Amino acid sequence: MRPMAMEQFVLFIFMCCLSSRFVDAYDPVDPNGNITINWDFPSIEPNVYAVKVSIHNYQLYRHIERPGWRLSWVWAGHEFISTVIGAETTEQGNCTGRHGANGAPPHCCEKQPVMMDLLPGAPYNRQSANCCRGGVLSSVTQNNRTATSQFEMYIANFALDEHGDPKMPTTFSIGVPGYTCSNATNVPATRSKVDEQRHVQVLRTWQIICSYSQFRDAPSPSCCVSLTTFYNSTIVGCPRDSCGGANSPSAHQCLSGGEQSKVLAALPDADGAPPVPVIRCTEHMCPIRVHWHVKQSYRGYWRVKVAVTNYDVVSNYTDWNLVVQHPNLRSLTQLFSFNYQPLIQYGTINDTGMFWGIKNYNEMLLGDGNVQTEMILEKDPSDFTFSGGWAFPRRVYFNGHECVMPPPDQYPSLPNAAWDVRVSAVQRWLVAGSCLLSLSMLFLV
Ligand SMILES: *[C@@H]1O[C@H](CO)[C@@H](O)[C@H](O)[C@H]1NC(C)=O
Ligand SMILES: *[C@@H]1O[C@H](CO)[C@@H](O)[C@H](O)[C@H]1NC(C)=O
Ligand SMILES: *[C@@H]1O[C@H](CO)[C@@H](O)[C@H](O)[C@H]1NC(C)=O
Ligand SMILES: *[C@@H]1O[C@H](CO)[C@@H](O)[C@H](O)[C@H]1NC(C)=O
Ligand SMILES: *[C@@H]1O[C@H](CO)[C@@H](O)[C@H](O)[C@H]1NC(C)=O
Ligand SMILES: *[C@@H]1O[C@H](CO)[C@@H](O)[C@H](O)[C@H]1NC(C)=O
Ligand SMILES: *[C@@H]1O[C@H](CO)[C@@H](O)[C@H](O)[C@H]1NC(C)=O
Q1: Over 60: is that where the pLDDT of 266 sits?
Q2: How many domains is the chain built from?
Q3: Does the pLDDT of residue 7 top 60, yes or no?
Q4: Is the CB of 94 under 6 A from ligand 2?
């Protein structure tokens, strides 16, 4: 093959890899990721059952943002919730003829209750351990402690099966787009921690597993990637209308000047509902842009600058994270101002990792603001090259949503591209191999 043809071949392969998205719940970046819900029954008293419900996010990089989880299920019989602490249902329902503790009106008599977390600062007597974060769950990598939410409820009128055991509710949902939940199953009951020092025995545990699928979520993109390099002055911007054109139904409101009224209208209301996004008008119309700049080349290393810009003037992204796939990340030597953890490490594959902010420094990406880092990567003689678009990321996710990349044929090229195509055989095999893998996944499902 002539060098130019080779370059086009590599670009074609990139394009093919980039366009294959995760097809079903299986996420190669986080194959075991799930949200596990446990219903622990610490005691089984006649007629009124205490249940401690915990929701743990075991996903490495996906987190649940505001407006948070909304857990719902369908009772098997005529159960009702007499009281709950650490959460509340959205509706009370028709409680005619039913009485809770001490004859007080029950908390909820709906056949399908929808339980939501309390907001921070809820009255002390309504709180329980690990409650009251507005339904937000961190990813387990960023903060294992706040990856858990808990509430306790007392259930009356439990429908019983032929053995006298409570019947499991059905149709569980966590109320966040993209997630589906299993039916409840009995798992071996364990001890449950009530405070720092004490564990209590649990008599019974029901477990529900919820998993995410980008296919079911199918959100319109919310971020895009732009590229620059030190060796070519071309600025490759985000593709036009990456996140929906001005006329598409999913388009965000956009702000062209200092229209304060739009900003004020979007600010969070007293109920703490999250603000409506108001983004600055740009060609790409995305709330988030990730800029990848190949900054410098040294003898054995190269330097990349990454900047994440928030074009939404009102929304802050608390605990944001960025997942990047690039073959050189296995040789990440130095990183400034972000945290990093590799996500995929199977044998020789170690090309995907997660970046997030440093606590009390840049963990919050402010409205109309940006966060940035520089990193130094060691050149691996077997595959390093600035040609063929190799220096650019293969995939980028912001807060778990895949970002739109520019088309590979627009990537900035080396000035003497025709002479400098040094695409090693190893690299071709790697790229072609991962493409075949993606394709086979596409056909298997
Ligand atoms: C859910 O996640 C936990 C923790 O990573 C893991 O041990 C468990 O096998 C997962 N369950 C399923 C059904 O994926
Ligand atoms: C509430 O339930 C009672 C008895 O189950 C029924 O008689 C009554 O009509 C219901 N009220 C409403 C508003 O649905
Ligand atoms: C994360 O928290 C869960 C539940 O609180 C606990 O079982 C687990 O050991 C913790 N994992 C790490 C890595 O700290
Ligand atoms: C859950 O249980 C219901 C009824 O018991 C059944 O119809 C349904 O197929 C089950 N769903 C799953 C995902 O197993
Ligand atoms: C975003 O953060 C800034 C600074 O902490 C704060 O003043 C502002 O109210 C926050 N905006 C929203 C919508 O929460
Ligand atoms: C993966 O890459 C990171 C640096 O990005 C490195 O610290 C880690 O040791 C690598 N893991 C393996 C198994 O090579
Ligand atoms: C920079 O890259 C662009 C896009 O690949 C290419 O068209 C242009 O010729 C390059 N500029 C130089 C000076 O090589």
Answers
A1: yes
A2: 2
A3: no
A4: yes
Q: How many other CB atoms are found less than 10 A from the CB of residue 156?
A: 19
Pocket-testing residue among 80, 92, 96, 108, ligand 2, by greatest number of atoms within 8 A of Cβ: 96
Per-residue pLDDT tens digits for 154-200: 999 988 889 888 899 999 999 999 999 999 999 987 777 767 787 77
Query: Alpha carbon of 222 to those of 140, 267, 344, 410: distances in Å?
Result: 23, 20, 24, 21
| Alpha-carbon span 87 to 92, nearest angstrom | 13
Tokens standing for residue 395: 């995939």
Same domain, 320 and 183: no
H/E stretch holding 49: strand 48-57
Give per-residue pLDDT as tens, 371-427: 999 999 999 998 899 999 999 999 999 999 999 999 999 999 988 754 444 444 434
432 found inside a domain = no
Q: Are residues 232 and 104 in the same domain?
A: no
Q: What is the pTM of this model?
A: 0.83
Domain assignment present for residue 421? The answer is no
- Domain of 107, CATH number, reads 2.60.40.290
The boundaries of the domain holding residue 73 are 26-215
Fill in the amino acid letter for 407. P
Q: Are residues 399 and 335 in the same domain?
A: yes
Q: Does 8 map to a domain?
A: no
Output the CA 316–ligand 5 centroid distance in Å.
Answer: 6
Q: The dihedral of CA 224, 268, 64, 253: what is its sign?
A: negative
